[in-house]
Design a protein that fits this description.
The complex is a heterodimer of chains A (about 100) and B (about 375). Chain A is of the alpha+beta class and about 100 residues long. Chain A has one domain. Chain A is built from 2 helices and 5 strands. Chain B has 3 domains: about 55 residues, no CATH class; about 100 residues, Elastase, domain 1 (Roll), CATH 3.10.170.10; about 160 residues, Neutral Protease, domain 2. In chain B, strand 4 and strand 5 form a beta hairpin. In chain B, helix 7 packs parallel to helix 8. Classes of the chains: A alpha+beta (about 100), B alpha/beta (about 375). At the A-B interface, strand 1, strand 3 and helix 2 of A face strand 4, helix 6, helix 7 and helix 8 of B. The complex binds zinc ion (ZN).
Chain lengths: ~100, ~375
């Protein structure tokens, strides 16, 4: 299982890519990773964003690679569910993650 | 959730009356109902300022700030800084960290947001006789320490929000250090209450450009720089050095950092879709803003002197009186040429026209 997070828009207008592969994690952490992903409920439709975008709001795309087709889901700062935010913050805190700039 | 937090706490509101009802009355009621509803919301234990009520209405009920103008103004309070304590959107604004008129606190980000908001307020008041974002003294709300190592700053429709930076894109503490970033975010508030340019494609790139223009002008004003002396950089020295010196260059778009894709001419306009894809930036709003940015910097340099005196005044007048939500580059360009003639003379008019010609918007 692999999660790729794209973040873009924002004040800088830069695109950042962050990837975390469960295989790179110690077993306990891989389990935490899996349960964080399950809690984030990526298959659930996010709440609609407000009528007017927030200027400089960050845009997110999460790509989950499991067995079967990749799941791609997009959010913006305005409608990012709390459990997805926590998942992103957890991934950001992992030394095993791989980061790069650009799309 | 703890009730000691000053973030908006729906349960506390429910103890008075359903917040949706109060919110609707605050926006749609007759003047007396509006006042009573705002007072009811504002006197709850959780919401200590009327301005925070507006943030609540915006976030929870999707009510636009433009509809709230005319209430909730506390004239003696110019600005307040809150600490989001890394909790993110659901905890905006956060805990009050420094009130208007209070001395500096220990937290540098709080003081920087305070000073930067104050400098921006004074710039618009002294140079363009504008009393805050709405022209009627609207309190400026900022939250610092948003999210965890968050690499962004934004305007949420009612307030400014600043992350701490991760040290991988933005330097830690970088986002509140640059006064042009603060002025950029505040200008989004002015745009929202005036031209209300939609945040997509060309109107979105104009929205972005006006924020960069006044962001840069506030910086030039605080440094007392002429158009010739200014570096015309946005967010200079706040990226990690490996990425580059700044986020954008108005005088030389596309050169601020490695990977900077900003065009400085219509020949290189990037027609991206607005489809929520983080790679497409709301239809390239932070990319194509390079074109009107370039036109402004060229016009300001041609006119000489302090950029806020002539070019800035022309752009300010156009933003606040001439544009509409869907204005495109050519419409904005023609409006600046027109206003240059009204405010100054045919010399300035020619200089503005020539600047837009150099970037390929006018012929
Ligand atoms: Zn912006």
């Amino acid at each position: 299982m692999k999660l790729i997070i794209f973040r873009g828009g924002g004040f800088a207008g830069m695109v950042a890519r962050t990837e975390l592969d469960a295989k790179s994690l110690p077993r306990d952490d891989a389990e935490t990773f899996a349960s964080s992903i399950a809690r984030a409920n990526l298959r659930e439709e996010p709440p609609p964003p407000p009528e007017k975008s927030w200027p400089d709001a960050q845009l997110y795309e999460l790509c989950l690679e499991e067995s079967g087709p990749t799941l791609n889901v997009r959010y913006s700062e305005e409608n990012l569910p709390e459990d997805v935010r926590l998942l992103v913050a957890w991934v950001d805190g992992r030394p095993e993650r791989v980061e790069s700039m650009g799309p | 959730m703890s009730t000691t937090r000053e973030g908006i706490h729906p349960r506390t509101l429910c103890s008075i009356a359903p917040p949706d009802l109060l919110g609707r009355l605050a926006v749609e009621g007759d003047p007396r109902q509006r006042e009573a509803a705002v007072r009811a919301l504002a006197t709850s234990a959780a919401i200590r300022s009327q301005r925070a009520v507006m943030g609540y209405l915006n976030r929870q009920l999707n009510v636009n700030i433009g509809k709230m103008v005319g209430f909730g103004v506390i004239p003696e309070r110019r600005l307040t800084i809150y600490d989001n304590k890394t909790n993110g959107r659901t905890f905006l604004p956060g805990v009050r960290a420094r009130d208007w008129g209070e001395p500096p606190v220990k937290d540098a980000a709080v003081n920087q947001a305070y000073d930067g908001s104050s400098a921006t307020y004074e710039f618009f008041r002294d140079i363009y006789q504008r009393n805050s974002l709405d022209g009627a003294g609207l309190e400026l709300i900022s939250s610092v320490h948003y999210g965890v190592a968050f690499d962004n700053a934004f305007w949420d429709g009612t307030q400014m929000v600043y992350g701490d930076g991760s040290g991988r894109i933005f330097q830690i503490g970088g986002l509140t250090r640059a006064v042009d970033v603060i002025a950029h975010e505040l200008t989004h508030g002015i745009t929202e209450l005036t031209a209300a340019l939609i945040y997509s494609k060309q109107p979105g790139a104009l929205n972005e450009s006006f924020s960069d223009v006044f962001g840069s002008l506030v910086k030039q004003f605080t440094l007392n720089q002429t158009a010739a002396e200014a570096d015309w950089l946005i967010g200079e020295g706040i990226l990690v050095p490996e990425l580059g010196t700044a986020l954008r260059s108005m005088i030389n778009p596309g050169t601020a950092y490695s990977g900077d894709q900003q065009p400085g001419h219509m020949d290189h306009y990037k027609d991206l879709p607005d489809n929520n894809d983080p790679r497409n930036d709301n239809g390239g709003v932070h990319i194509n803003s390079g074109i009107p940015n370039h036109a402004f910097a060229l016009a300001a340099r041609a006119m000489g002197g302090y950029a806020w005196e002539k070019a800035g005044k022309i752009w300010y007048t156009v933003l606040t009186t001439r544009l509409r939500a869907n204005s495109q580059f050519d419409e904005a360009a023609r409006a600046t040429v027109d206003v240059a003639g009204t405010l100054f003379s045919s010399t300035e008019q020619d200089m503005v026209h020539d600047a837009w010609k150099q970037v390929g918007v006018l012929s």
